[in-house]
Amino acid sequence: MSFISVDMLASLGGLFLAAFGAATLLPFQSEVVFVALQVAEAAPLSAMIVVASIGNTLGAVVNYIMGRGVERFRGSRWFPVRDKNLARAQEWYARYGIWTLLFSWAPVGDAFTVIAGIMRTPFWLFLGLVTIAKTGRYIVLAWLTAQAQGAV
């Protein structure tokens, strides 16, 4: 039976918050936190991948929920996106479809998750595709970090 230290819980909690924030429209970078914790061996790598994936996926769910409700504010002076840009994004999503959610790990992927909400993508389909993308991102990041360290 392994012992979970307070430091490990704090590290995983910080990773969760960084991953959650990185998936929202806020300017966070979870990759830096993930790599630093991996190099420091602050927690088991499998736990780090799971925690980061869950945090990042839940952050994308926040974007999806915002997208579901954002159109009712269209036309307001403070609305952050012009009608023309929103219409273009909706056309783009309609053309390329739900599979763009597999790119939700990319820097522009947060916008895809908001648009998925606006376009009323079925939630369970959204959740499945985003979970695959987000988890894949951290698996690749862990592998690249291990390669750089010469551990693989």
Account of the 3D structure:
The protein is mostly helical and 152 residues long. It has one domain (6-149). 70% of the residues lie in helices and 0% in strands. It is built from six helices and no strands. The chain has helices spanning 6-23, 30-40, 45-70, 83-96, 109-118, 123-149. Helix 1 packs antiparallel against helix 2 (30-40). The longest helix is centred in the last third of the chain and has 27 residues, at 123-149. The mean pLDDT is 90.
Secondary structure layout plus pairing:
Elements: H1 6-23, H2 30-40, H3 45-70, H4 83-96, H5 109-118, H6 123-149
Helix pairs in contact: 1-2, 1-3, 2-6, 3-5, 3-6
Summarize the structure.
By secondary structure, the protein is mainly alpha-helical.
Give, in order, the helices and strands.
HHHHHH
The outline comes out as elongated
> What portion of residues is helical?
55-70%
- Helix tally? 6
Task: Please tell me the overall pLDDT.
Answer: 90
Please state the structural category.
mainly alpha
What does the radius of gyration come to? 17 Å
Let me know the largest β-sheet. Answer: none
Distance between the termini: 26 Å
Strand content: under 5%
Strand elements, count: 0
Total domains, how many?
1
Brief descriptors of the model:
152 residues, mainly alpha, 0% strand
